Amino acid sequence: MSVPSKKQTLFDLSGGHPALDLVNSLDNRFRADGPNENLVHYSDLLRFLGESGLLEPQRTRLLDKATSEQAAEQVLREVKELREAAAALFYAGMEERTPAHSDVLTLERHFVEASRHRELHWKTAGKNLADDDTPAHMAWRWSRHAETDPNLPLWLLAQSVSDILLSPDAARVRTCAVDTCRWLFLDTSKSHTRRWCNMKVCGNRMKARRFQARRDS
User: Fold this and answer.
1) 142-160 burial by CB neighbour count: b if 16+ within 10 A, else e?
2) Measured between alpha carbons, how far is 125 from 108 in angstroms, rounded to an integer?
3) 182: closest CA among 29, 32, 35, 38?
4) pLDDT per residue as tens digits for the range 27-52
């Protein structure tokens, strides 16, 4: 396996949250002739985590070299299981439906498993990435064995899905208004009226359709 260069991005991270971008990695999931899978190989998964900011380049390279083909295939299958259960919960929530109990149990299993590989530690005072003073505090971190485990991508994504589903942000998850897209995104607009996953793509596409409809009428 090999991880592509970081300079070239592969994934469109229009969702505004890694959990939503994960769901969107199955593109055109509602298309009649079938969706497009963007997580074909373990290397694709590692690249997705890198581009999402969940995994640093050094850790990505380490996992890429150390993970066997068999382990990689197993992790990829479980990530897709997590993704589809998460998708079912998000879409059910927006459609005001009760999600299937099996999907809830799937997420519970992944959330609990991920939590088993984290540990509390005391973080001393210092500077954060924004150069603001950060007081000493308790924080979660991944255990040492987790950092070299092939399942780390799965646990990172399970934690990401858990973070948004169990937070007030879940109420701000929207689906793209273009019926051929329906990607998920986090609506952070002040008016909470954002309609498209990506204004440059779906927004312009919808505007073009409306313009053509007016011309034809």
Assistant:
1) beeebeebbbbbbbbbbbb
2) 34
3) 29
4) 999 988 889 999 999 999 999 999 99
Structural class in CATH, domain 18-166:
mainly alpha
d(CA 117, CA 155): 8
Tokens at residue 136, please? 């000493």
Q: Of all helices (H) and strands (E), which one includes residue 157?
A: helix 152-165
Q: Where are the domains of the chain?
A: 18-166
Residues of the chain with pLDDT under 70: 1-9, 126-132, 201, 203-217
